[in-house]
Specification:
Rossmann fold, seven-stranded mixed sheet, five-stranded parallel sheet, about 325 residues, alpha/beta, 10 helices, elongated, 12 strands
């Protein structure tokens, strides 16, 4: 992706597992990096900092990264590029107000995943801080191909053989088509189920239902317009949840076999494409850094917000958010 961050300061997160990749990528590309972390269900901050320092040393970039559990807002006034990753969020109005005028916020995902509680978009527009999404369809990423692989892995973990199994898929494209194609290639008999759930009775011979809806918040599983969890329980249908609106209380009430078992807030994915391995996440974060670098340099050279977003799109990796550029 020809990532070059030389001369730039990047504020991002340090996280566990393969999600430590972002500060390492940025430093290897020449940036001065501030990598913030905090304790969470995935690990203690001191352990993540130790883990990050060890890897940074092995990559020869230790001197370029400041690992810290200080609040990210404490560094807002000295950075050029901000990623919207978990430990950096929320990027609120106060945070945005402290950013240098040329700063850019890079989304490490596509615009559809944007949540208002994560970033103060109105404050960004008011100050002239571009926010740019990542094109997950780009040939360097092909993130949605991994969504199908993720569904396949989750089904196998749940004891569903896939080959010869009957599987329902609830999900708008490209999630739905990616999952359907991957399962069909693996020998499954796949039924696409559209939202809203119609009066057509559910095929109770299904072995599993995969819910991977990301374009609508109409209920997929539950008694408020979705498929009743009682039906899944009565017919021993396994529920695979990647994204989408499900009534977790209803699912738990009827002891539905659900994988993964953890519950997530509406609008979040239970697992991302990185569930199948580190490569999709590394590629995605590298792309996010690349579009941020292009936009920041445009701003530093006097470019407008619109010009910087267009500059980030030139590689094919950047995607504008709705309403940021007038056609």
């Amino acid at each position: 992706m020809e990532l070059d961050l030389s001369g730039l300061t990047v504020l991002t997160e340090a996280a566990s597992g393969s999600f430590i990749c972002t500060p390492l990528l940025a430093a290897a590309a020449g940036a001065k990096v501030i990598a913030v972390t905090k304790s969470s269900q995935y690990g203690k901050s001191k352990d993540i900092i130790s883990y990050g320092c060890d890897l940074a040393k092995s990559f020869g970039v230790f001197s370029s990264i400041q690992f810290t559990d200080d609040l990210p807002i404490n560094f807002a006034n000295k950075v050029d590029l901000v990623t919207n990753l978990g430990f950096v969020r929320p990027i609120n109005e106060e945070f945005v107000g402290l950013l240098p005028q040329h700063a850019v916020i890079s989304l490490m995902w596509a615009p559809w995943e944007v949540r208002e509680e994560d970033i103060a978009f109105s404050a960004c527009k008011k100050k002239g801080i571009p926010v740019i999404g990542t094109n997950e369809h780009h040939e360097f990423l092909q993130t949605f191909e991994y969504v199908g692989m993720t569904a396949l892995k989750l089904l196998l973990e749940s004891g569903i053989e896939v080959f010869g199994s009957k599987i329902g898929v609830i999900g708008s494209d490209p999630f739905g088509s990616s999952i359907t194609l991957r399962l069909q290639m693996s020998g499954a008999i796949v039924e696409r189920i559209k939202l809203p759930i119609s009066s057509k009775p559910l095929d109770t011979c299904l072995d599993a239902i995969v819910v991977a809806e990301h374009r609508t918040w109409e209920q997929a599983i539950g008694d408020d317009g979705g498929i009743s969890a009682k039906v899944l329980s009565d017919h021993d249908i396994t529920l695979i949840h990647i994204s989408g609106n499900i009534d977790s209380a209803n699912v738990n009430q009827w002891n539905v076999k659900k994988h993964p078992s953890q519950e997530v807030t509406k609008g979040y994915m239970t697992v991302t494409a990185s569930y199948v391995g580190p490569k999709p996440g590394i590629d995605l974060h590298c792309a996010g850094l690349r579009i941020g670098a292009d936009a920041v340099r445009s701003r530093m050279n006097g470019g407008t917000v619109c010009e910087s977003i267009i500059r980030a799109e030139e590689s094919g990796l950047g995607l504008r958010l709705p309403g940021w550029i007038k056609d």
